[in-house]
User: Fold this.
Amino acid sequence: MVPSYDPELELIYFGTAVTSPAPKFMLGGVELTHLYHNSTLALEADTGAIRWYFQHLNDHWDLDHPFERILVDLPVSPDPEAVRWIREGLEPGKTRKVMTGIPGKTGFVYTLDRETGEFLWARPTVPQNVVVDIDETTGRAVENTEIIFTELDQEMLVCPTWIGGKDWEAGSYSPLTRTMYYPLRNMCARMLVTGDTNSPRAQAFEQQVAIYNLAADHIQAPGEEYLGTVYAISAVTGQTKWLFETEGSTYSVVATGGALIFGGDSMGLFRAFDHETGEVLWRPGHGLPDFLRRRRSPVRGDIDRAGEFAPYARWRRACPRRQPVRLRASRSAVSSGRGAARRL
Assistant:
């Protein structure tokens, strides 16, 4: 997916995906690290040489880490009550060049020093049972051995699933609030490792992915009332500033200079959130039509000095096309529809 670039350091930051097949017993063994899958690679722009790398997960479940990386300079002050793993000996309040965000499907927030790749802090968001610990010196994740596949035809309950947690839907960052905003899902899956995704057993599952030798039934995470969420997380402290929850899957969000966060969901609702509180300030009264209910990123622009939005979409046709719909970025309050925001 699209990398990030630091022109001062002349580094390009790429995220990588899982191996094929995903279960490591089918490759060299579960005890190996299998570089450089599910990693952040800092590549020298001129040569392509690896300056540093950070491996987020030894992945057996197709929990890719290829998503957007946020590059910002800010004081690093993780709150121990909000952030589970903080680098040992970290000097709080020191301004650093960091790479932060949610790079993978697990929904973990990672903050690294983008000059060196040094681990600074990490925390989970959505329900997960994949990582049981993170080394606070190296940042290396300790995977849950109880759900690591070791032979064919095993079934495991894995949280989140390969559609997230986080997936292709993009998050956003606002320098006004020093906050990152992410659409995430509370989902798990009953996963099967199989040598033949066309076998009757594999076909009994909802989805099969042959290149990863996996099949799965996706379910809402047990104990969770809502499927979709938008998390507002401080990039400075790691605290959850607010959390919006709704029945449908949430899609890409974008932060604006007008103190609004825009995003939609699978039920066709497109909302404007207050960037500080998560209050829904605006949405179309009847939702968006079906053809707009796609995992597209909304685009913010200024037309005739008036902030307007274009949620890009595609039609369900043999030859897809995109159709922008211009929505005035007004703060006029209307009914918020299904869903609820909690300030935390």
Observations:
- The two ends are 32 Å apart (CA to CA).
- The helical segments are 200-203.
- Residues 200-203 form the longest helix (4 residues).
